[in-house]
């Protein structure tokens, strides 16, 4: 689908120029030595012991829970690279949270290189860097098993042959290589034994049936089941989930491919997505949690009837999914409330408005039964501006400073962890249309949905709120 774009590991690599004829000759010799006979691909930088435990794993809980709470996904650029002062600042920021924020990382792309450039030859150097960062910052590591090495999808083998184009990255493994991908998943699980939660694939990438105009849910489910079984063979306590479908929706007036049952003022669900979900749910080998993603806006980028009410879609989808999966823990692997521009960037809103609408989206997901979710963190490699990021770029010593969305995500994760008992609170009648509220016995989150100040009365307290203000109220201590 690529709605959030893509960021491959290629962008994180640094090419060093070879100076002098001697160095050029040496490089050629090394390349020849490391070339696979008859394959044409280099084995430089690879190893055969991909399943060797990396580093010093954090001791995971003996009985991991299928719910991890609210955190974020690392993308192409993150705080594992840059100025030491900046990266340490982010590590400290995450470590101060008191609650272990879940951090999600893909195995290929979005900051990680090709993990198995040739069959049986591994390169986890960039994945190692991300896992090391998650460990140092005290996070709960989550791994998304996507995407697949080129040789599994009709491409070429070799460390120097990876095709980092979007179309290649988003190509699914060929059915004849599904078992090879499952074996790679098992290798990842053995290498990082402190990773106890795995998501299988990403947004059904490459699983579209052109001839029938629908998702290839049979193919995805076959891949999912092989991966599920391979991971459980490594350790029966590993938590596995899918299908990570994009819950697309249409304008409510559209009838073609639109659901007649899952709909609202926000639009109507794409029935082809619901059909794919139902097939996976019926034929899956098992699941410890269920994963979806999506936006509050329609396929035409319409926020109906407005940016806050559009988030009701998250609630409707969540209830539909939970009903079908008989209460399996629900994760939102990605969630979007602000349409992107032509460059797939989100810069049009003020940060105050952005945080408020994001808070409204989180509230809507909880109301739909979700207990875990990951903010897609659009970090930049450098520069002062970083719209929607959790921290400033880490390229300079002054980088890695907290931004408003980090405050929202971290506070939300602490205030509303899995297992939270939510309570109803009183809201003045004239304030109900203008605020979104979520409450536990300790905390009340209040969001002003208006671009103007209001005087609100919530939970028996009266207070002023600025335009798009997000306010946290303390209740009785437990």
Produce the secondary structure layout:
Layout: H1 21-33, E1 70-73, H2 84-95, E2 102-106, H3 125-136, E3 140-145, H4 166-169, H5 178-191, E4 197-200, E5 208-209, E6 214-215, H6 217-234, E7 239-246, E8 249-250, E9 258-264, E10 267-270, H7 271-283, E11 289-295, H8 312-324, E12 330-336, H9 351-367, E13 370-376, H10 404-415, E14 435-439, E15 443-448, E16 454-458, E17 461-465, E18 470-474
Parallel strand pairs: 1-2, 1-13, 2-3, 3-4, 4-7, 7-11, 11-12, 12-13
Antiparallel strand pairs: 5-6, 8-10, 9-10, 14-15, 15-18, 16-17
Notable characteristics:
478 residues; alpha/beta; eight-stranded parallel barrel; three-stranded antiparallel sheet; 10 helices; globular; disordered N terminus
Which structural class best describes the helix and strand composition?
alpha/beta
Number of separate strands: 18
Biggest sheet strand line-up = 1-2-3-4-7-11-12-13
Largest beta-sheet details: 8 strands, parallel, barrel
Number of helices: 10
Report the principal-axis shape: globular
Percentage of residues in strands: 15-25%
Mean pLDDT: 91
Weakly predicted, low-confidence segments: 1-5, 8-38
Helix content: 25-40%
Order of helices and strands: HEHEHEHHEEEHEEEEHEHEHEHEEEEE
Measure the end-to-end span: 45 Å
Radius of gyration, Cα only, in angstroms? 23 Å
Structural summary, described in words:
The protein is α/β, with parallel strands linked by helices. It has ten helices and 18 strands. The strands form five sheets. It has an eight-stranded parallel barrel, surrounded by six helices. Strands 8-10-9 form a three-stranded antiparallel beta sheet. Strand 12 (330-336), helix 9 and strand 13 form a beta-alpha-beta unit. The longest helix is centred in the middle third of the chain and has 18 residues, at 217-234. The radius of gyration is 23 Å and the shape is globular. The chain starts with 20 loop residues before the first helix and ends with a strand. The model is unreliable at 1-5 and 8-38 (pLDDT under 50).
